[in-house]
Specification:
Blueprint: H1 2-49
């Protein structure tokens, strides 16, 4: 019985870990996109000055 509980717990832990990793990847991608957008705006502003 104990092993059944442990297996369920492991499965739940693994799925939450996978979800966390997916969320982290999404967040990193979003941050990267925002940074690139900011850099692009900054570069365009600089090139207008020159």
């Amino acid at each position: 019985h104990a092993s059944e509980c442990e297996l369920r717990f492991d499965a739940a832990l693994k799925s939450s870990h996978d979800t966390f990793e997916a969320a982290t990847d999404l967040q990193a991608e979003w941050i990267e996109r925002r940074l690139k957008a900011k850099v692009k705006v900054a570069v365009e502003a600089e090139s207008k000055k020159l």
